[in-house]
Design goal:
Layout: H1 2-23, H2 29-35, H3 44-54, H4 60-83, H5 96-112, H6 115-148, E1 151-152, H7 154-160, H8 167-191, H9 193-204, H10 208-211, H11 219-236, H12 242-245, E2 272-273, H13 286-297, H14 303-322, H15 328-350, H16 354-376, H17 378-383, H18 385-410
Antiparallel strand pairs: 1-2
Helix pairs in contact: 1-6, 2-6, 3-5, 3-6, 3-9, 4-5, 5-6, 6-11, 7-16, 8-14, 9-13, 11-13, 11-15, 13-14, 13-15, 15-16, 15-18, 16-18
Length: 427
């Protein structure tokens, strides 16, 4: 019932986004996904990552068949395009096979499975399709933000960012100094965040095929909730980022060409008009939120997975700042946002109690106070950085510390091993 209700809500949400996109003359998430059944997909890596999620419900023999079928179908698509002299200029030349296999298992679940086996296979198919649908929905959300929010609040955020020392400007100069190698590495980490998430999720779901059930909480749930709630805040607090508002990428819409050479001067901020193309996707930083979620969920994995989670978080933070996509205060808001979401999901999993409610309320309050401060106290924050800078970090630290302390109390404690009592020696 829960999975059916979640699927119905997701489908309804996608239909609403499709209708909203059509009103602005744009293809919606459903249209874009249907196109990828035949046309070159935007991200073949994402489709194969989605197939990996679907395969957690399969046996090893079935997984080998599924991978082989996906690769075979992709080879077939490649040969047809080559024979027809069709050049792939947008997207990846592979990935259609993975989508076909996912849909094929959906058909198998309905026509060839019954009872609990059908439900389990449908859950696997739904999990894979949700990852793809989430990406398409996110792209549509970004287009909607650019069309419905003609004015952006970057001057407010840039002014408040002085409290943290305008870290995006410093990181931008460092990334440029590393040359093309450093930039390419960070860019790959930034755009392949979903693939890293699938690696962690696959570890968490590694026993599904044996136990024939999903764990109550895993990374995919957190990812989807972040993607669902985050764009709503984009609509409330539209920000495009320093590389657009204060850099060359903003063109004639930029306030000035200052990034990353010179931080903007402190002045009384006001909303500025911006184009109808650039997404208003900065506040909060969802890349930071997703990378932090990967870090949190990788903590219980083996050493290699913990190392990868730490690397992905650090590299993502460097990329978001170094490419000028976010301000420092965006990252703080993103970290508070994801810890609050994770606390709410874990409380929902184990049952709400006083500690869970207190943790979620604390995180939501801090998040709201941060956004209100960026909007209504940016000048004061910039004029007194030695006061507001530590306060911002302490506020974020209080949420993180509360989460760590509370979740440690939630962990089941192993029962102490009883030592055998000494027995009297026979006489």
């Amino acid at each position: 019932m829960l999975w059916a209700a979640g699927g119905a809500v997701a489908l309804g949400f996608l239909i609403l986004l499709e209708i909203a996109a059509r009103r602005y003359g744009l293809p919606g998430p459903i249209t874009n996904q249907v196109r990828e059944v035949v046309f070159p997909p935007k991200s073949g890596f994402l489709l194969y990552a989605s197939l990996a999620l679907t395969m957690v419900v399969l046996t090893w023999r079935q997984r080998i068949i599924a991978i082989g079928a996906a690769i075979g179908i992709d080879v077939g698509f490649f040969l047809v395009r080559w024979a027809a002299d069709i050049k792939v200029t947008d997207g990846h030349p592979f990935g259609n096979g993975a989508l076909w296999v996912i849909l094929g298992y959906g058909v198998i679940a309905v026509t060839r499975r019954t009872g609990s086996e059908r439900v389990l296979l449908l859950k696997g198919v739904g999990l894979g399709l949700l990852l793809v649908a989430g990406r398409k929905a996110g792209d549509t959300w970004l287009l909607i933000t650019s069309r419905t929010r003609p004015a952006v609040l970057d001057p407010y955020v840039a002014t408040a960012d002085h409290a943290l020392g305008s870290p995006s400007w410093l990181a931008g100069r460092i990334v440029r100094a590393t040359g093309p190698i450093g930039a390419h590495i960070l860019d790959y980490v930034y755009i392949q965040l979903a693939v890293a998430a699938v690696a962690v999720a696959a570890y968490q779901l590694r026993n599904v095929a044996v136990e024939r059930r999903f764990p109550r909480h895993h990374l995919v749930r957190t990812f989807l909730v972040i993607g669902l709630l985050g764009p709503v805040i984009y609509m409330i607090f539209p920000v495009v980022g320093p590389v657009f508002a204060y850099g060359a990428d903003g063109g004639n819409w930029a306030v000035a060409d200052l990034w990353p050479g010179t931080p903007p001067p402190i002045h009384t901020p006001h909303p500025i008009p911006f184009d109808e193309i650039t997404p208003r996707n900065c506040m909060p930083s969802l890349h930071t939120a997703w990378a932090t979620a990967i870090f949190i969920h990788s903590r219980k994995g083996p050493r290699a997975l913990r190392f990868a989670g730490t690397f992905w978080l650090i590299a993502t933070l460097c990329a978001t700042l170094g490419f000028g996509y976010h301000y420092g205060v965006d990252l703080v808001a993103g970290a508070v946002f994801v810890v609050t979401v994770e606390a709410a999901l874990r409380s929902l999993e184990r049952g709400w109690d006083r500690s869970g409610i207190r943790l979620v309320v604390h995180g939501a309050t801090v998040f709201g106070v941060l956004l209100a401060s960026y909007r209504y106290l940016p000048t004061e924050m910039a004029e007194y950085p030695w006061v507001f800078g530590p306060l911002i970090i302490l506020a974020m630290g209080s949420v993180v510390r509360g989460y760590v302390r509370t979740t440690r109390l939630w962990e089941p404690k192993a029962a102490p091993v009883r030592r055998p009592e000494p027995q009297p020696e026979p006489v």
